[in-house]
Amino acid sequence: DAKTTQPPSMDCAEGRAANLPCNHSTISGNEYVYWYRQIHSQGPQYIIHGLKNNETNEMASLIITEDRKSSTLILPHATLRDTAVYYCIVRVANRDDKIIFGKGTRLHILP
Amino acid sequence: EADIYQTPRYLVIGTGKKITLECSQTMGHDKMYWYQQDPGMELHLIHYSYGVNSTEKGDLSSESTVSRIRTEHFPLTLESARPSHTSQYLCASSSPYRGRAQGEQFFGPGTRLTVL
User: Fold this and answer.
1) Do the Cβ atoms of B58 and A38 come within 8 Å?
2) Residues whose CB falls within 8 Å of the CB of residue A106, separated by 6 or more in sequence, listed in order
3) CB B2 within 8 A of CB B109
4) Over its length of 116 residues, how does chain B's per-residue pLDDT go in tens digits?
5) Which of A14, A48, B20, B30 is deepest in the core (most CB within 10 A)?
6) Edge to edge, what strands does the sheet with A9-13 contain?
């Protein structure tokens, strides 16, 4: 699976959009971009995933660049409960297998 | 909602004791995983299983062992606990046919182990 690069930490004001970047310059054509988050000491939770089109669900939006070498997770109206570590993971499509979580981005939502 | 359970949630035990951390899921998932995570640090995969009677070591070497005799149960055992085993242990499961993303992993609440 391709490696990803994320900033170690970010701050965002409550009520603003939080934009979390991820670089995956070695991504292959059959690899999806997945995002999980881990709220303090809990198990990680799936947020969203995509291949090349932008995706949106009730939690977030995922913007993938046209060359697929980077992506941005957007939390449109961040709340204090969104404070967590966010993991960007690249995995082969249709593959149900182990996930390697990297260091992720520690997002602090400021009141 | 994911139905994956871990017991105990917290365990404080003395050096040299044998311990078993329980993990059960009621979703019928074939694949199960154990992760180890120190406070503020990365998650490390230590064991996984593709189904009954299947166990594999993960990317981080661990002195623990696992078994998979039943689909729903994936216990982790430490034969002789040491202070270096103090950590949080997270169990997860997945299925290619369930979840919003193929292979989405569902996590239990974790067991926080302290070895004195």
Assistant:
1) no
2) A8, A9, A10, A84, A85
3) no
4) 568 999 999 999 999 999 999 999 998 888 999 999 998 899 999 999 999 999 999 888 889 999 999 999 999 999 999 999 999 999 999 876 655 666 688 899 999 999 99
5) A48
6) A9-13, A105-110, A84-92, A31-38, A45-50
| Three-class SS of chain B | CCCEEEECCEEEECCCCCEEEEEEECCCCCEEEEEEECCCCCEEEEEEECCCCCCEECCCCCCCEECCCECCECCEEECCCCHHHCEEEEEEEECCCCCCCCCCEEECCCEEEEEC
DSSP type of residue A100: -
* Residues in B touching A101 (Cβ below 8 Å): 35, 42-43
